[in-house]
Write a structure and sequence with these properties.
It catalyses: S-ubiquitinyl-[E1 ubiquitin-activating enzyme]-L-cysteine + [E2 ubiquitin-conjugating enzyme]-L-cysteine = [E1 ubiquitin-activating enzyme]-L-cysteine + S-ubiquitinyl-[E2 ubiquitin-conjugating enzyme]-L-cysteine. The chain is an alpha+beta fold and 241 residues long. It has helices spanning 7-22, 120-132, 142-153, 160-171, 173-178, 187-190, 203-210, 220-237, and strands at residues 28-32, 40-46, 57-63, 74-77. Helix 2 (120-132) packs parallel to helix 8.
């Protein structure tokens, strides 16, 4: 592996990967790009029901720095995305992925930025929230931001933004079929946790060495309720166009 990896970052990533495989976040599938590289993850995001993204299958990469969790990872969509907070190259512009420096001109508080208590779960929840409720104050894609505001302010009568998103959603069907994935289209299907079995049984040996079985397991109920509340809020604010 080309990274100048540190034992602490490897251990942190191994623990998070095991946790996410045992207690997945609804609407996401997590795998390693390569089994031997803990620093590059592939994420598949299912578009939440009752939103413009319903039925979509969006792929992304999370790339972790060697000093994780002290520095934030990057989150880049591989699927073409038209969104106020996603750059043309797929990079997501979101406060939680920005280093915790004091930059008054950014309009962000240091508390809104990355800190070592954040993790992949909080990143995933932040990204799905951002998809449904963009930040138009500091857009990465100005044209998408203007178009989104027209759609929102017209309460869906201006359909240009919605039509672009739906076309992108439809274009993801081929990827889902190629990957053998059935994309959930109802809330009941969406909230079923998608466990991804380990492709390499030898990786369990690594988990045994690095994962403390006596650690208190994270409470997944909080993630479930937060995800459901996000979807309910988004449906109420921006009904499906």
């Amino acid at each position: 592996m080309a990274h100048q990896a540190t034992p602490s970052s490897q251990k942190a990533l191994m623990m998070e990967l095991k946790s996410l495989q045992e207690q997945p976040v609804e609407g996401f599938r997590i795998t390693l790009v390569e089994e031997s590289d803990l620093y590059n993850w592939e994420v598949a995001i299912f578009g939440p029901p009752n939103t413009l993204y319903e039925g979509g299958y969006f792929k992304a990469h999370i790339k972790f720095p060697v000093d994780y969790p002290y520095s934030p990872p990057t989150f880049r969509f591989l699927t073409k995305m038209w969104h106020p907070n996603i750059y043309e190259n797929g990079d997501v512009c979101i406060s939680i992925l920005h280093p915790p420096v004091d930059d008054p001109q950014s309009g962000e508080l240091p508390s809104e930025r990355w800190n070592p208590t954040q993790n992949v779960r909080t990143i995933l929840l932040s990204v799905i929230s951002l998809l449904n409720e963009p930040n138009t104050f500091s857009p990465a894609n100005v044209d998408a931001s203007v178009m989104f505001r027209k759609w929102r302010d017209s309460k869906g009568k201006d359909k240009e933004y919605a039509e672009i998103i739906r076309k992108q959603v439809m274009s993801t069907a081929a990827d889902a079929e190629r990957d053998g994935v059935k994309v959930p289209t109802t809330l009941a299907e969406y909230c079923v946790q998608t466990r991804v079995p380990s492709q390499d049984s030898s990786s369990d040996l690594l988990y045994d060495d690095l994962y403390d079985d006596d650690m208190e397991e994270e409470d997944e109920d909080e993630d479930e309720s937060e995800m459901e509340s996000l979807l309910t809020l988004d449906k109420a604010k921006y009904p499906h166009a």
